[in-house]
Amino acid sequence: MTQPGYDAMADLYAETFPDPYQFPIEAHAAAAFAEAAAGRPGRTVDVGCGVGHVAADLAAQGLDVIGVDPSPGMLAHARRLHPHVPFSDGGASLGTLPAGPIAAILARFSLIHVEPSEVRSTVRRWAALVSAGTPVLVAFQAADEPGPPIPFDHAVAPAWRWHPDEFSDVMAAAGFDEAWRIVYRDKSYRFPMAQLLSHRR
Fold first, then answer.
1. pTM for the complete prediction?
2. Could you point out which of 32, 37, 108, 196 has its C-alpha 20 to 30 Å from the C-alpha of 184?
3. H, E, C per residue of the chain
């Protein structure tokens, strides 16, 4: 998830997506995630936070949030737009995350840029960092048919679509049990999208 193209797109991204969510269902999913994370000790980690809109929204909902992203350009915007939220330079495996307990993990449309075999190791890494009951919400462009992840022509960097069943299996193998999923379509976008919430068992 360290594609330099995101640095080049940071200005455009911040202007094109001024709101944290493109569709109302995404805001509802984030609110349900915030409810699941509320009261848990530690920080909620926004993996691949981009310009920080969602991290700021979760902070407004009462969570102690830290955003993590490998793009200096994205982080510069995040820190300028949301100075009250801490942000850290780092990848999806959270190897550079400041020490401390993790209350919850959010990864919205960021793991799509991680090679599928690395997604599996990344989720296993998360499992080692969190305690039982920790909620994890992952959002991604979805495949219609079951099977392995499908590469697609993302505008910035290599990306893969996952069938929700396949991603749920990856989470289960790492020690997370699915709580719920939302799969939705919008006529303005070419692929279905999925939100998948799991808990560490």
1. 0.93
2. 37
3. CCCCHHHHHHHHHHHHCCCCCCCHHHHHHHHHHHHHHCCCCCEEEEECCCCCHHHHHHHHCCCCEEEEECCHHHHHHHHHHCCCCCEEECCCCCCCCCCCCEEEEEEECCHHHCCHHHHHHHHHHHHHHCCCCCEEEEEEEECCCCCCCEEECCCCCCEEEECHHHHHHHHHHHCEEEEEEEEECCCCCCCCEEEEEEEEC
